Amino acid sequence: MQATARHLRRHITPAETRLWERLRGRQIAGVKFRRQHAIGGCILDFYCPAARLAIEVDGPVHMQQRTADAARDALLAAKGIRVLRLSNDDVFLRLEETTQRIATIVRESQDEQTPSRRPHPHGRSVNTRASAPPIPLAGERDGG
């Protein structure tokens, strides 16, 4: 798998090259992207570990493999990885909008991973994204 990923890195498509120029060096939302990254039997065009985001740049060949792509996307989703599929036109004709869209997704992902804090009535902060409700303080249990 690693040898295949290395080969793909050396033989990157023109659309992937253009997008990589924007993704590399933490240019989008300050996060690192990897190219031709292997995960769970899949080689992703680009992957951002911090946002758990895979970006696939689909050329014309993907029109014939939609079922396979959907199955692959479902496999990645089961691993908690969101897949953003872009067309070559998204990269060549709408690069600014495309990079803004990626930045928005990355920021939303970071927001989802960062617990929200709200003030507690007794001066403590409470994680509003906690899965269990906060344990009541003594005196709050009985309503008094």
Going across the biggest sheet, name each strand in turn: 1-2-3-4
- Computed structural class: alpha+beta
Distance between the termini: 62 Å
Name the poorly predicted regions. 124-144
Major β-sheet profile: 4 strands, mixed
Mean pLDDT over the full residue set: 79
**Number of helical segments with 4 or more residues:** 5
Shape: globular
Radius of gyration: 20 Å
* Relative helix content: 25-40%
Number of strands: 6
Share of β-strand residues? 15-25%
- Oligomeric assembly: single chain
The topology string of helices and strands comes to: HHEEEHEHHEE
What does this structure look like?
This protein is an alpha+beta fold. The protein is 40% helix and 22% strand. It has five helices and six strands; from the N terminus they run ααβββαβααββ. The strands form two sheets. It has a four-stranded mixed sheet with strand order 1-2-3-4, with helices on both faces. A two-stranded antiparallel sheet has the order 5-6. Strand 3, helix 3 and strand 4 form a beta-alpha-beta unit. The protein is globular. It starts with a helix and ends in a 17-residue tail after the last strand.
